[in-house]
Design goal:
The complex is a heterodimer of chains A (84) and B (151). By secondary structure, chain A is an alpha+beta fold. Chain A has a single domain, classed as Beta-grasp domain (Ubiquitin-like (UB roll), Roll), CATH 3.10.20. Helix content of chain A is 27%, strand content 25%. Chain A has three helices and five strands. In chain A, a hairpin with a 2-residue loop joins strand 3 and strand 4. Chain A starts with a helix and ends in a 6-residue tail after the last strand. In chain B, helix 2 packs antiparallel against helix 3. A four-stranded mixed sheet of chain B has the order 1-4-6-2, sandwiched between helices. Chain B has a four-stranded antiparallel sheet with strand order 5-3-7-8, with no helix packed on it. Chain B has 151 residues and is an alpha+beta fold. The chains are: A alpha+beta (84), B alpha+beta (151). The interface between A and B is medium-sized, with 18 and 27 residues.
Chain lengths: 84, 151
């Protein structure tokens, strides 16, 4: 049982940037389970409503909200970019 | 690859000159397309005193390198430079410099224009402006294709 718990344990790092970090009130959360980026949002924000314009990345690449996440992934949520 | 993020002030013209010297291909290029973005002291609000540029470390650098690579695939470029500031900047300071060297003007100008529009649309940077009213985040970039001309 203990072995089974160990292998089922996931670690997903979730990051928030810029105005979204200010709104959510945290910059980083570690999750132990999530199947998609959408689930990661719900868990990391404790089901906060998701603004329509939020962007998401998995391991530094743009992704979508139904994309799967895996153990060890870094998931980032951020508002529209405003560089340049 | 010649694309990076700088935490310190940049001199865009010096960066372009240095890049061109290091290229060592004088006579092979006939055009340099360049763009320098600088901070205004106004935006939606007047009297901006400072801007804080945040980014997503690692993703930003990776994204700029990808843009440079794509530009080199799309146009016949001899060289390409992209440098973007992060941290605190002040009115008049350079925010970004892009330069593209090519044999002909069309490739140099078009690639430079494409790079700044792609960068503004997708590269993970965010601006927070400081005015007498306080600090506020810039919500979105303007569309470079639909603005600029006198109406």
């Amino acid at each position: 049982m203990k072995f089974a718990e160990t292998i089922n344990q996931m670690s997903i790092q979730v990051k928030f940037f810029a105005s979204l970090r200010d709104k959510i009130g945290k910059s980083e959360v570690e999750l132990s389970a999530a199947k998609t980026t959408g689930e990661a949002w719900d868990q990391a924000t404790e089901n906060a409503p998701r603004p329509d314009n939020v962007l998401v990345a998995i391991n530094l690449e743009y992704a979508r909200f139904d994309d799967p996440v895996e153990d060890g992934d870094e998931v980032a949520f951020f508002p529209p970019v405003t560089g340049g | 690859m010649s694309s990076w993020v700088s935490e310190h002030g940049i001199d865009p013209w010096q960066l372009i000159a240095t890049q061109e010297t290091n290229l060592k291909q004088a006579g092979r290029f006939g055009a340099i397309g360049s763009f320098v973005g600088t901070m205004r002291d106004f935006n939606d609000r007047e009297g901006l005193s400072k801007m804080r540029l945040e980014h997503y470390p690692a993703m930003t650098e990776q994204y700029l390198q990808k843009l440079e690579q794509q530009a080199r695939e799309l146009w016949p470029l001899l060289d390409c430079l992209i440098v973007h500031r992060v941290g605190d900047i002040y009115p008049g300071d350079a925010i970004v410099v892009i330069a593209c060297w090519s044999a002909h003007r069309r490739a140099a100008l078009d690639s430079c224009n494409w790079l700044i529009e792609e960068l503004k649309y997708r590269a993970p940077f965010w601006k927070q402006e400081f005015s007498p009213e306080g600090a506020h985040w810039v919500e979105e970039n303007t569309d470079g294709h639909s603005q600029g001309k006198k109406t």
